Structure formats: C-alpha cells, structure tokens
C-alpha cells in the first residue's frame, strides 16, 4: 500500500519558491512579524525587478536610436519580455491571494484523505505526476537563470587566461548612469542584476507551478466524480452528491479562469515573440557561450508554454469524460426519477470545462501548436530582414 498522500504535497514546490520571494504560504498566518517581514521583502524584490525592466528599456531605446548591433537588440528584447511577463504573473498571484486561498480551501475539503479513497481514485499517481513535473521544470528554470547570471564570470576567466587582460562583463544589457567598471561598483551592479533576474525567474516559475497544481487537483475531482457516477448503481442520494460535486468543480474551474485568464493572454502573446527572438539568437553568428545559454532559454520557453497548454488540455479531457462515465453506469436498472436526473447531469457535463486567454484562445495543445506556428512566422520574417555580411 502506498503512503497516504497529503493535500499540501501538491503545492509544496510552488510554495518553496513563494518563500524565496516573500509571498505567504497557504494556511500561514498573515498578521505575524514574520509575515510582515516577508511582505517587505516581496515588495523590495518586486520594486527591484521593475527597476531592472525600466533600465533595460532605457538601454534598448538608446541602442536602437544609435543603430547599435542588431543582434544585441534582439538579445535584449527576450530578456525584457521575460521580465515583463514575470511582473504580470506575480501580480496575478498577489492581487488574488484571497481568491486563490479560497480555491485551495475548497479543494482541500474535497481531497480524499483515507487510504481506501486514495487508492480508488489514483491519488498517488496524481501526486507522482505533480512531483515529477514540478521538480523537473524547477531544475530546468534554475539551471537557465544561473547560467545566464554566472556565465559572464566564466567568460571573464577564459578571456583572462587566454589574453591576460581582465575585461569585466555583466549578465544583461542595462543602462547605468555611472561607470560600473570601477571596483566596488561592478560588484554591486553584478549583484543587482543577479537579484533581479533570479526574482524574475521565480516570479514566472512559482505562478506557473501553482496554476498547474490547481488544475491537477481539479482534474482529480473530475476523476472522482467520474468514478462515483460509474458506480452509483441507481442510488438517487449518491447521484445528488455527484451533482453537487460537479457543480463545485465547475465553479472552481470558472474561478481559476477568472484569475489567470489575463496573464495567460499576456503569456501567449509574449511567448510567441520571446520564442521567435531566442530562436533567432540561437541561429545567428554568436559566441559559443551565448549559443549555449540561448539554446537553454529556447528550451525553457518551449517547455513553459507547453506545460500551461498541456494542463489546460488535461482539464478539457478530465471534464469531457463525465458524460461517458455516467452512461457506463447501471442507470438502465434504476427508476425513471434517477434516469431523468442523470440526464440533466449528462447534459451539463456536455459543456466541457476549459481555460481561455481572455476568450481569444483556449488553453490546449492546439493553442501550443498555434503559438509555435506564429513564432516560426515571426522567426522567418526576422531572418529575411536580417542579412549578416
């Protein structure tokens, strides 16, 4: 028999990252000195990330006005998009903390607690998938951001060993009003960029992981509902409980849609451009160091969008099975009252639950294909415009 799965294990990984940026964990008191200290740390991190985005924009505008290297501009643009996207995502979490806690409270109440129920509803499999996906994605993102952050040090060391000259480098193109090459200034600037980049990565990562965790928990409830309908055996009281559960899960899906729909739209639009620009960088005449980090950036961007679309598609599949599972039961042996009530449940289940990007696009694997197609169109256009001598 598998160990008893706790509800908290589904959200443990995103909460670890929330701790890193100062967002209060689910169920943690919010009126303690520790909570206030975390709030102060979050807003300082958020302010630093916005500041990084501003000076990135200033650098971009100045470089574009001076007709600086086109490759440099296209290298800066995806970093700006990544930072802007992280700011939008984390504010989605921050502005909807109470609503998200309410969703988690409801899912916690519905969560199967006994060994028998967890074995019956395959809760262990859900938890295993959750842990594998979240840990793998987290490792990928952390490798990405720290390679971006620390690769300049490796590049400086290689250049110094080969030429004997120490040329200071920063991880990102940002505008500064002082000479950051000076001793002391360089160290502070390097730390400032690393802090902002790490926060951007964690803002993106934690939001995506919580989004996926909630969808997975909702899919678990759809599976529970499907199992109960399939084994209702004409019990009218059980059918009533199933109808209530169905309504609750639909409401939770709609609430999740209301919270994340705007950020998903920004994510889809931004990711199309980011994937295009990162792919352009990876196929251009750049150094081996830059090639390595931009290939990793491209892989991370593709995986990030795929995760959102995969779990959006998983929600559609989980909700679409309800009608068929209800039909698989022994309704033909029940009375007319039960059959008519079951028909109402099946009719409502015919409208599948789905998440959208502000109604412009459904979050599904088909959307992922459309994003890749759009990115490739941008990529080929950019390649046509840019003709290196």
TrEMBL record:
<feature type="transmembrane region" description="Helical">
    <location>
        <begin position="294"/>
        <end position="312"/>
    </location>
</feature>
<comment type="similarity">
    <text>Belongs to the insect chemoreceptor superfamily. Heteromeric odorant receptor channel (TC 1.A.69) family.</text>
</comment>
<feature type="transmembrane region" description="Helical">
    <location>
        <begin position="264"/>
        <end position="282"/>
    </location>
</feature>
<feature type="transmembrane region" description="Helical">
    <location>
        <begin position="73"/>
        <end position="91"/>
    </location>
</feature>
<dbReference type="Pfam" id="PF02949">
    <property type="entry name" value="7tm_6"/>
</dbReference>
<feature type="transmembrane region" description="Helical">
    <location>
        <begin position="139"/>
        <end position="161"/>
    </location>
</feature>
<protein>
    <recommendedName>
        <fullName>Odorant receptor</fullName>
    </recommendedName>
</protein>
<feature type="transmembrane region" description="Helical">
    <location>
        <begin position="208"/>
        <end position="227"/>
    </location>
</feature>
<keyword id="KW-0807">Transducer</keyword>
<keyword id="KW-0675">Receptor</keyword>
<keyword id="KW-0716">Sensory transduction</keyword>
<keyword id="KW-1133">Transmembrane helix</keyword>
<keyword id="KW-0552">Olfaction</keyword>
<feature type="transmembrane region" description="Helical">
    <location>
        <begin position="40"/>
        <end position="61"/>
    </location>
</feature>
<keyword id="KW-0812">Transmembrane</keyword>
<keyword id="KW-0472">Membrane</keyword>
<dbReference type="InterPro" id="IPR004117">
    <property type="entry name" value="7tm6_olfct_rcpt"/>
</dbReference>
<feature type="transmembrane region" description="Helical">
    <location>
        <begin position="360"/>
        <end position="381"/>
    </location>
</feature>
């Amino acid at each position: 028999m598998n160990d008893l799965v706790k509800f908290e294990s589904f959200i443990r990984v995103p909460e670890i990252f929330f701790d890193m940026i100062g967002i209060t964990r689910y169920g943690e008191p919010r009126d303690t000195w520790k909570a206030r200290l975390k709030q102060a740390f979050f807003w300082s991190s958020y302010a630093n990330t916005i500041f990084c985005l501003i000076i990135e924009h200033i650098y971009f505008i100045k470089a574009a006005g001076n007709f600086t290297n086109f490759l440099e501009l296209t290298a800066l643009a995806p970093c700006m998009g990544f930072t802007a996207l992280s700011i939008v995502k984390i504010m989605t979490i921050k502005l909807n903390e109470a609503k998200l806690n309410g969703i988690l409270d409801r899912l916690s109440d519905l969560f199967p607690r006994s060994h028998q129920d967890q074995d019956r509803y395959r809760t262990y499999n859900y938890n295993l998938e959750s842990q594998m996906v979240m840990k793998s994605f987290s490792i990928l993102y952390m490798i990405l951001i720290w390679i971006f952050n620390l690769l300049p040090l490796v590049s400086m060391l290689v250049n110094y060993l080969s030429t004997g000259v120490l040329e200071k480098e920063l991880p990102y193109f940002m505008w500064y009003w002082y000479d950051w090459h000076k001793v002391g200034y360089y160290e502070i600037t390097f730390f400032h960029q690393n802090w902002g980049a790490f926060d951007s990565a964690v803002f993106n990562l934690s939001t995506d992981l919580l989004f996926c965790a909630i969808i997975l928990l909702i899919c678990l409830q759809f599976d529970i509902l499907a199992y109960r309908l399939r084994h209702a055996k004409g019990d009218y009281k059980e059918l009533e409980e199933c109808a209530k559960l169905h309504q609750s899960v639909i409401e939770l899906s709609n609430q999740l849609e209301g919270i994340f729909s705007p950020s998903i739209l920004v994510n889809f639009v931004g990711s199309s451009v980011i994937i295009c620009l990162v792919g352009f960088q990876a196929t251009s005449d750049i150094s081996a160091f830059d090639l390595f980090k931009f290939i990793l950036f491209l892989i991370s961007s593709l995986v990030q969008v795929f995760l959102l679309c995969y779990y959006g598609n998983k929600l559609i599949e989980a909700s679409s099975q309800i009608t068929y599972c209800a039909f698989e039961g022994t309704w033909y042996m029940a009375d007319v009252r039960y059959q008519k009530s079951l028909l109402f449940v099946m009719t409502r289940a015919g409208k599948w639950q789905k998440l959208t990007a502000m109604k412009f696009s459904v979050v599904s694997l088909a959307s992922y294909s459309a994003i890749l197609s759009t990115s490739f169109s941008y990529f080929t256009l950019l390649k046509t415009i840019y003709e290196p001598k």
